[in-house]
Amino acid sequence: METRLKMADHILWIRVPGELDHHSAEVICREADRRIQREDIREVIFDFADTTFCDSSGIGMLMGRYKMIRALGGRVRAVRVQAQVARILTLSGVAKIIPVELSEGGREK
Fold first, then answer.
1. pLDDT digits over 86-105, tens only?
2. Residue 77 three-state SS
3. Which of 52, 44, 41, 35 is nearest to 13 (CA)?
4. Which residue, 48, 84, 86, 103, is the most exposed by fewest CB within 10 angstroms?
């Protein structure tokens, strides 16, 4: 699994893999936490363009980074979220806390 993290203008971009499960969530947590602690990050953007599956570990990963960034005065967003993942984020309540932007053509039916 390749997790891609990039920094630009105090923003940490995280490209979420195709399956956001226990293993990938653990890798993202470790890498993101290290960056958040060492660098001046004001916003974390999770890019879900490639993601078709998300389980409770993924929800926990998102909420953990949200709490960490909010404590530092920053914000978190989820972008390019496909409909099936958006549904999971909505049903879990994450979408009430973290802004979720659907991918083009990703509108729920």
1. 999 999 999 999 999 999 86
2. strand
3. 44
4. 84
